[in-house]
Amino acid sequence: MDLRALFGACPLVSILRGIRPEEAESIGAALERAGVRIMEVPLNSPEPLKSISILAEKFSERMLVGAGTVTQPEQVSRIASAGGRLIVTPHADLSILKAAKDAGLIAIPGAFSPTEAFALLNAGADAIKLFPAENLGVGMLRSLRVVLPAHTIVVAVGGIDARNASSWLAAGAIGVGIGSAIFKPGDSASRVFEKAQELVSSLEAVRERV
Fold first, then answer.
1. CA nearest neighbour of 129 among 200, 97, 177, 84
2. Domain spans of the chain?
3. Dihedral, CA atoms, 166, 116, 111, 75, nearest 10 degrees?
4. In whole angstroms, what is the distance from residue 40 CA to residue 15 CA?
5. pTM for the whole structure
6. So which residues are the catalytic ones?
7. Going by CATH, does the domain composed of 3-209 fall within 3.30.70.20?
């Protein structure tokens, strides 16, 4: 899948922390209906590989499905076997990045500094996850954008919701990762759809102005 095209269709990455396998299909359908194109199941969710497998089987032809909070390179092969095509890490680990690229997967590793961002890009990262965004602030992203290659995809993650997501896009993020503001354990599929639809609409309006 073309990562830039996916973000072009929708700048939102849905982080489904805490999702259970039995609700994965209904939640995935709600997100797709709202226009979301990228779904990430953090590995500290209940039975994450099972949820990834269900989501991949149902939606992988139209959406990018993968895992977040990947912390060990050996996890990559298990994610790939489950049908996941996206590897997201909270940190700058070159061994995980190498495992992901060797497996033919899309890799969005976490970076906290320009040093980490450039090292990851030089090692083949498809995009950079600026994390935790809430601690770094939009000023950090603006400064980073000045020195990063112009084509770099930066995804801001951490503490982002409907109140501040637009400021990150305005500062130069191509996408934003959103967790509890779009899904939290106990949310019904209809509630997820409502939240996702509202976020997608507001972010699209921002992109038209940027």
1. 177
2. 3-209
3. 140
4. 5
5. 0.96
6. 40, 129
7. no
